[in-house]
Amino acid sequence: MSAVRTALVIGGGIAGPVTALALHRAGIEATVFEAYESGAEGVGGVFMVAPNGLAALRIVGLDEQVAAVGQPIRRMAIDDPRGRRMAEFGGVPGLPPGLALRRPDLYRLLLERLREAGVPVVHGRRLVGVEERIDGVTARFADGSTASADVTIGADGVRSAVRGLIDPDAPAPRNVGLIGLGGYSDHPGPGRPDHAAMHFANGRRAFFGWWTVPEGGTAWFSNLPHRATLTAAEAAATSAEEWLARLRDQHAGDVPAEQVLALARPETLVNVGSMHIMPKVAHWHRDRMVLVGDAAHAPSPSSGQGASLAIESAVELARCLRDLPDAPSAFAAYESLRRDRVERIIAQAEKTNNEKAAGPVARTAMRLVAPIALRTFLRPEKMFGPVHGHRIDWEAPVTAP
Questions:
Q1: Are 254 and 81 in contact, with CB atoms under 8 Å apart?
Q2: Upper half-sphere CA count for residue 328 (Cβ side, 13 Å)
Q3: For residue 388, which of 165, 178, 97, 192 has the smallest C-alpha distance?
Q4: How far, CA to CA in Å, does 378 sit from each of 4, 99, 300, 346?
Q5: 177 Ramachandran zone, left/alpha/beta (phi>0; psi -120 to 50)
Q6: Disulfide check for 71: which of 24, 48, 100, 378 has CB 3.0–4.6 Å away?
Q7: pLDDT tens digits, residue range 357-381?
Q8: Whole-angstrom Cα distance, residue 45 to residue 219?
Q9: 71-73 vs 218-225, strand pairing mode
């Protein structure tokens, strides 16, 4: 039986609440501390939860609730800039479809589930330090308050304060040379609406994705090449109308991007600024502190796996703390279970980022070879099967590596 009975979870995004729920199921008392004064229920755009992420959510009792608010995506189509189909992927046989999900909806469901489970969430607590003792840890927050438990779990994202405490020389997130924008348009989409298909197009100057939504219109996103780092605050200093003007210029002549963006609604624009990826983090844990989710392994949104990998890691960490006798052995087992998988996916996402950020000549060359590659050595089933088919056996005991 584990000696770990209590945990401080730093970060109230996705990884933190899922970690706390999984710990609750494992019989470990957790409290979530969020730096912001309020929840993030109204913040963020749309993202995908892949089949592997949905399977992990089932373990914490959220699969049905998420399915009720998500849009099933059963096919992914790869188009050229003229809107012509180059390839189509119908999903991995035997697996359920992924879900397109509004980030605020997932935040709301997580908070509701935490309340049902009786897991406390404390807002307005920005971590500034952790004091480790032989029998536990005490976290210090910017407002002067403290909290103590057996372990501290850093689920505080790519700019993790806990990561810096574990290793002052840990890397910072790296700009991948793309800006992430998205929103909704009143454009109905070309042809008869197909709400089960998500389209990806490597346009002449920028990458574009879109899918029609059941309530009418089209959801879209674009990755604009932009080498200099742009923070979310800097991005917000430019109006939505100006960003849409830039997008319309970059996607001029692209089908259906040009038509979709012409009817894009400025009030729905989400601009996250520069997209980031985490370089390899050498140290995921130290003594009684450990990292989970983007704090340890943040693939860029190009992977389609950011949320799903964070959810998986949260569940695996809880299993390890449940089954192993002390924090160091649990953390070592957790890292052994997770590192190889997440780093392979991060490496693949980096290749995708390089393609999206390529110049016009390289983009043309990639469009010419893509149809052949997708029918041969880049078959989607081979690429996505091991990623989407991953399952965590909650009932199986964890052994030390």
A1: yes
A2: 4
A3: 97
A4: 44, 23, 20, 17
A5: left
A6: 100
A7: 445 544 444 444 445 444 544 455 6
A8: 10
A9: unpaired
Q: Which tokens in the block code for residue 211?
A: 């899918």
Cα–Cα distance measured from residue 60 to residue 310, given in angstroms and rounded to the nearest whole number: 13
The two three-digit tokens of residue 77, written as one number: 């189509």
**Terminus-to-terminus CA distance in the chain, angstroms?**
17
CA distances from 82 to 90, 94, 263 (A): 22, 33, 18
**CA distances (Å), 141 to each of 17, 99, 184, 294, in order?**
19, 36, 38, 21
- Report the C-alpha gap between 39 and 108 in whole angstroms: 9
For the cut 90, the answer to whether the pLDDT of residue 162 exceeds it is yes
CA distance 297 to 292: 8
Distance CA 303, CA 201 (A): 15
Amino acid in the structure at residue 161 = A
CB 338 within 8 A of CB 297: yes
Specify whether the CB–CB gap between 289 and 162 falls below 8 A: yes
Q: Which residues pair with 178 in a beta bridge?
A: 225
Residues in Cβ contact with 367 at an 8 Å cutoff, skipping those fewer than 6 apart: 80, 81, 86, 202
Q: How many CB atoms lie within 10 A of CB 96?
A: 16
What pLDDT digit, counting tens, does each position of 13-30 carry? 999 999 999 999 999 999
Phi, psi of 52 (to 5 degrees): -70, -35
Residues in contact with 307: Cβ distance below 8 Å, sequence separation at least 6, in sequence order = 14, 47, 48, 49, 53, 106
Q: What letter does residue 217 receive in the DSSP assignment?
A: S
pLDDT digits (tens, 9 = 90+) for 276-287: 888 899 999 999
